[in-house]
Amino acid sequence: MTKRILLALVTLTLAGCGSTESAVDYTEFCGLAEKMNAASGTHGEDPASSTDPKLIADTWEKATAAAKELRDNAPEPIKEDVALMVTSILDMDAIFKKNKYDLVAMAKDEKIRKEVDAISSREGVADASQRYNTFMEKNCAVS
User: Fold this and answer.
1) What is d(CA 56, CA 61) in angstroms, rounded to the nearest whole number?
2) Whole-angstrom Cα distance, residue 128 to residue 109?
């Protein structure tokens, strides 16, 4: 369950970005994407972060704040896609918060697993993520 939740977060948050070479300057947005990527990266760096509710809460607090900032500053070509992805992140965080970020306990509860799965497989999110990835590759030097 923990890996599935982390995969859902990573899928939704996607990769950060570097410099831009397009006609429109997306440098600020690329920086925000980089910030969000960094904020959600704690799980891979600290094994305890997948079982310690305090570390998980801290990570999600940073990641959701960065996600909101990304959404609020998304350029028009991907504004709707980013909004959909961020809504999914915020909805997932609401479940985590309600369960005090105890992923071990959440993994044992079938109802919670189904709620999280429903968010991660929400209609349109995969397509939005693909368009976001394409945008990032084209405008933020992400490969």
Assistant:
1) 8
2) 29
In the chain, helix, strand, coil percent, each to 5?
Answer: 75, 0, 25
> Under DSSP, is residue 16 helix (H, G, I), strand (E, B) or coil?
coil
Q: What is the pLDDT of residue 122?
A: 93
For residue 43, what are the contacts with CB-CB under 8 A and spacing of at least 6? 6, 9, 49, 50, 59
Dihedral over alpha carbons 32, 15, 133, 21 (to 10 degrees): 60
| Residue linked to tokens 């368009």 | 131
Nearest-10 crossing angle of helices 2-13, 79-98: 150
Q: What gap in Å lies between CA 83 and CA 85, rounded to an integer?
A: 6
Closest CA to 32 of 75, 77, 67, 83: 67
CA distance 114 to 120: 10
Give the whole-angstrom CA distance, residue 122 versus residue 36. 21
pLDDT tens digits, one per residue of 73-114:
999 999 999 999 999 999 999 999 999 999 999 999 999 999
